[in-house]
């Protein structure tokens, strides 16, 4: 499993991880098996959140005997992101996850509480050893600038954003900002939340042709494209063990310049939007 340095943490993290949004909508036993199958083939970066229903409990079950192998990430909702609220929310997540610390803890999206309070809470948790690093999710450049001004350099570990073949808006400004400041960029919903390119479409045929050439799946081709740039990671979700194993294969898939150009041509990034897209 190919890994790279995860932003300011300097920890080597697999470029293909595992998301858990809506994983509690699958059969629980299958969900646990899927996460374990992913871990067994090297997808040890696992992302969850307090607002994801029973996802943290499912992650706890899947990682019960392999916690030390996992880079574990969870998120606090903005409504809980006061200085004291961040601490309480994190402690609740730790109880649900049955662990004593998170490798990274994120603010799920910008909210109404002052960012200085949220960051102070993150730093309280970091000093207490309950989190090893903190980051952000769904933050555009203006918000990132504000956090950088408050926290200073080498504090923001990552920014988690919507990123799939038909939604490449972050390439305009957010990704360059992250590259400039040494912040990992983690793309969520890499398969477009159920809207993966139809195999009969022009883009779908391109993905299928590349997949056949490499003996893999169109989904793995998409993941390889989305992690082609330095500092990028992605966290596909699946409740099926076989799909988890297929996803992991993307980490070792090397797309050539002509293949990258074909994907880029059929899934252009388009103009920069006025607001950062998010789910």
UniProtKB/TrEMBL annotation:
One Pfam family matching this protein: Aldo_ket_red
All residue ranges annotated as the NADP-dependent oxidoreductase domain in the record: 16-266
InterPro entries for this protein: AKR, NAD(P)_OxRdtase_dom_sf, NADP_OxRdtase_dom
Superkingdom of the source species: Bacteria
Name this polypeptide is given: Aldo/keto reductase
Organism: Methylobacterium brachiatum
């Amino acid at each position: 499993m190919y890994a790279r340095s995860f932003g300011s943490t300097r920890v080597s993290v697999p470029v293909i991880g595992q998301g858990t949004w809506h994983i509690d909508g699958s059969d629980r036993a299958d969900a646990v098996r899927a996460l374990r199958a992913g871990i067994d083939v090297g997808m040890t970066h696992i992302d969850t959140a307090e607002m994801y229903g029973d996802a943290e409990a499912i992650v706890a079950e899947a990682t019960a005997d392999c916690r030390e192998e996992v880079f574990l990430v969870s998120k606090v909702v903005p409504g809980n992101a006061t200085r004291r609220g961040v601490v309480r929310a994190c402690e609740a997540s730790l109880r649900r996850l049955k662990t004593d610390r998170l490798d990274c803890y994120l603010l799920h999206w910008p909210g109404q509480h002052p960012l200085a309070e949220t960051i102070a809470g993150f730093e309280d948790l970091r000093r207490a050893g309950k989190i090893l690093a903190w980051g952000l999710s769904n933050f555009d450049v203006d918000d990132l600038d504000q956090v950088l001004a408050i926290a200073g350099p080498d504090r923001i570990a990552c920014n988690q954003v919507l990123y799939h073949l038909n939604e490449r808006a972050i390439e305009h400004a957010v990704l360059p900002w992250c590259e400039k400041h040494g912040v990992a960029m983690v793309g969520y919903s890499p398969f477009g939340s159920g809207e993966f390119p139809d195999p009969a479409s022009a883009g779908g045929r391109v993905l299928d042709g590349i997949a056949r050439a490499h003996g893999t799946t169109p989904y793995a081709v998409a993941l390889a494209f989305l992690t082609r740039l330095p500092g990028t990671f992605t966290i596909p979700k699946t409740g099926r063990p076989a799909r988890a194993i297929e996803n992991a294969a993307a980490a070792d898939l090397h797309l050539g310049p002509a293949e990258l150009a074909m994907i880029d041509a059929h899934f252009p990034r388009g103009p920069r939007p006025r607001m950062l897209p998010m789910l």
